[in-house]
Automatic annotation (TrEMBL):
Record bears the keyword Membrane: yes
Native source organism of the sequence: Parachlamydia acanthamoebae
Residue ranges crossing the lipid bilayer per the database entry: 27-48
UniProt keyword list: Membrane, Transmembrane, Transmembrane helix
Entry protein name: Uncharacterized protein
Lineage top rank: taxon: Bacteria
Length: 282
């Protein structure tokens, strides 16, 4: 409305905005920089992957798959991804939210882990893996294991022997309640290791933690499993468990006394528990 009371409509020119001349050079320069940086990152990534591939091919030390590492971690649970504070770039092939264990899709890939953890895996593989204590394998528990640790389903394990594939496919036809007597072709050693580790962690954890062995019992265990002795682990456990089996460096006066918790590392507790269960069914 004008001062004299008359309405005055807006004309078309009132909506027209003046355009200022644009300089296209900053846009193309920015785009060029983005493309250059992207190309450099791609080249660096490609070079890094090639270098790592060569390192894996040339170094047996690094040729450890996530599947291999998972067997070790069931006994050395302190090193699981779920149990460490800093998870970035640490065992990315392992899950810790939806499940605790290896990602089935990444099971056959080489593990990404600190060198000291890969070294510890090799120590376990050399000394402790052969000292496996076979136990009863209840069929129903094994079926649950396959559901929860699905990386051991043949679809995710390309190297699974045919006998094992047939076992999994026709599990309901198996009449035996204990699968332990099955052949290695039907139930390979690695699967037995995985099942026992899974059961220790998810079912038997409280019982393992409640163990109170005497010096006599541990001494008897060490006679059957000598690679758990202090001399093999003293340097490795110097920081985490400095008192590991410390009393066994000298003659023990009271063998019926309980071994202090400070001398029992978790991996020893697990092995002692499995040994006791194994011998109970012999």
């Amino acid at each position: 409305m004008t001062p004299n009371g008359n309405n005055q409509g807006l004309s078309e020119k009132d909506f027209i905005q003046e355009e200022y001349p644009k300089n296209p050079r900053p846009f193309w320069i920015s785009l060029g920089i983005v493309l250059l940086v992207s190309s450099m990152l791609w080249l660096i990534s490609s070079w890094y992957n090639q270098e790592m591939s060569l390192q894996y091919q040339e170094s047996p030390f690094l040729q450890v798959t996530n599947r291999d590492m998972s067997l070790f971690l069931w006994q050395f649970t302190d090193h699981m991804r779920a149990n460490v504070k800093e998870k970035t770039s640490y065992l990315p092939g392992f899950l810790y939210l939806e499940k605790v264990g290896v990602d089935p899709a990444a099971a056959e890939q080489y593990v990404v882990a600190p060198p000291e953890l890969i070294f510890l895996y090799h120590v376990w593989d050399l000394f402790l893996r052969p000292e496996f204590s076979p136990r009863v394998i209840p069929k129903e528990e094994f079926k649950r294991f396959l559901r929860e640790a699905d990386e051991w389903q043949p679809v995710y394990w390309t190297k699974a022997p045919q006998g094992y594939r047939d076992l999994v496919q026709h599990m309901d036809r198996i009449t035996e309640e204990d699968l332990n007597p099955l052949s290695q072709e039907q139930l390979p050693q690695v699967v037995r290791l995985a099942f026992q580790g899974w059961k220790n962690y998810f079912i038997e954890g409280d019982a393992i933690n409640a163990l109170e062995p005497t010096y006599a019992e541990i001494q008897s265990f060490l006679e059957r499993h000598p690679h758990y002795a202090r001399n093999y682990w003293h340097n490795i456990l110097e920081t985490s468990y400095p008192n590991y089996l410390n009393a066994f460096e000298h003659p023990i006066a009271h063998l019926d006394a309980l071994v202090p918790k400070s001398e029992l590392a978790p991996f020893l507790r697990v092995a002692f528990y499995n040994d006791q269960k194994s011998r109970a069914h012999q």
